[in-house]
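User: Okay, second chain of the day. Same drill as before: sequence in, structure tokens out.
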Amino acid sequence: MPTPELISPRSARVSAARRLGKRNFRGKDRLFLAEGPQAVREAAGHADTLVELFVTVDAAERYADIVGEARAAGARVHLADEAVIADISTTVTPQGLVGVCRFLDTPFEEILEGRPKLVAVLAHVRDPGNAGTVLRCADAAGAEAVVLTDASVDLYNPKAVRASVGSLFHLPVAVGVPVEEAVAGLKGTGVRVLAADGAGEDDLDAELDKGTMGGPTAWVFGNEAWGLPQETRALADAVVRVPIHGKAESLNLATAAAVCLYASARAQRAFGGCRTVTTS
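Assistant: Same drill. Structure tokens below.
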């Protein structure tokens, strides 16, 4: 059985990876961590993204295909002691693989040039798990882009990366965009901007019944605790609530985002919508 080449958490290479758990070092190095087989596989398949892979001997045998993909992608692969992986990892129970990846956010102007039909805008979203889950929902619903405003959490927070379950590598994401700029830019490309808010004047079911959801749409999602501030709501073309038909007090952010994004995805693929069932 091969012997781990990295056995000391104090080594310079391990220290450089470990510091990526902190936002200021991620921003300085333009690098972030991707943990676990799913995230590492997605990173290896995304051109020029995976820089290094730290992997235990057991994980290298269990996930030999992923290690092979990492090497084929040009990443440096290091067999590491389990203590080293535990030192780098930000999870309680590491899965034996930790990748170091280059930032992959997309300039907002480039997203606009792509004329997206469905976009999720995260305004004032502070919880990294929610941010990653909404990104995953947007990917699943077929959105072409996600925008994180300058008031939202760091896209590369390890919890956000894990919660995206690989979707971070699937679609363009712009970061640090002021919400006013995001809304104005999207409207300028013909996108209807809807603010999702539990106290919205318009009902999602009514919007679907009226047939107003079939065109290019951006959904703006707010803070987990207090929703969207009035000044952000005022920027939207409409403020829409997800109807509560039962006795639940409300929906959490990620659940509401999934409902809204899938409502748009279905309307856009219906007769008269901006997509056909065969287009993405």
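The two ends are 46 Å apart (CA to CA).

User: Thanks, on to the next one.
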